[in-house]
Amino acid sequence: MAEKKLVRVAAVQIAPDLETPTGTLDRVLAAINEAAEKGAKLVVFPETFVPWYPYFSFVFPPMLTGAEHVRLYENAVAVPGPVTEAVAAMARRCGVVVALGINERDHGSLYNAQLIFDADGTLLLKRRKITPTFHERMIWGQGDGAGLKVVDTAVGRVGALACWEHYNPLARYALMAQHEEIHVAQFPGSLVGQVFADQIEVTIRHHALESGCFVVNATGWLSEEQIAKISPDEKMRRGLRGGCMTAIISPEGAHVVPPLTSGEGILVADLDMSLIVKRKRMMDSVGHYARPELLSLKLDNRPAAPVETTTSFENPCATGSEFDGADNCSRDLDGAVDQRVAVLRGASR
């Protein structure tokens, strides 16, 4: 009988600092250290936690979001940069894998990005949310298929999706097909109300069952004081409460420990990795339970780029050719051009 492998993980539900540029990062570093002191080897933070989730975009009309959107630009994270260096150093110091949600700034655009640092501080994955949801589309650009991948870490094979990406079954299947063992889920928290928390729970429990993996999910938290500062309108404030479901789910779809649905805290649990085989023995949705000859997924995992540069013509004179000297080379090139021109003129008659 193989020795049982246990992995201790932590899901962090704390409030961001909505005021100061480095305040949330300081809280992240402190939480990593605290989780490590509790024995955690994987620490998961909420969606776009650094510097903060753009709650303003959910309760402000578009014309009133400009100042806060610009402030988010000013405090967003460059990758690599000082924020990633600080998190990498803390991960390395504590010997833990860290999954962190950030607002990434890439020149003139912001992206909802997920970062996974290995226990030695190496940044293994930077991925961008492929489709921002509803109000978020005014804030972030779209990611691409290059981020839909699972990475080998000190705690196992880890994949990640943000929020309603979990409603895209093909995105989830792309990670499932890469045999993720621990799935990182990140949601904003303090949003929409209890219905959002209920939906999160259903979604992450279903993914655990379907993928046959553990799910570690973190949601954020806002204090009443923070909610009051975001919006002076009590009707709008109702949309900034509830929606918290920090949870750790087994491959059998069950909570490993009771979820954290209000207040700040760090949820810690030991994952019995043998449960993955126990589940997949019965139902491996990308293996013995799959029918790839009937149903399969096509994934374009190339990074999207606004410009692709190709060379359409190569001068043989510049690369070494069979021509004898520059004069012969020039005459042959001129002849080739004259011939093509003659063919085109003939075709046009």
Automatic annotation (TrEMBL):
Which EC number(s) are documented for this chain?
A: 3.5.5.1
Q: Which Pfam families match?
A: CN_hydrolase (PF00795)
**Family classification:** Belongs to the carbon-nitrogen hydrolase superfamily. Nitrilase family.
Q: Which SUPFAM superfamilies match?
A: Carbon-nitrogen hydrolase (SSF56317)
Q: Which residues form the CN hydrolase domain?
A: 7-273
- The scientific name of the source species is Methylocella tundrae
Q: GO MF terms on file?
A: nitrilase activity
- The protein here is known as Nitrilase 3
EC category name: hydrolase
Key words, A-Z:
Hydrolase
Q: Specify whether Metal-binding is a keyword of the entry.
A: no
Q: Which domain of life is it from?
A: Bacteria
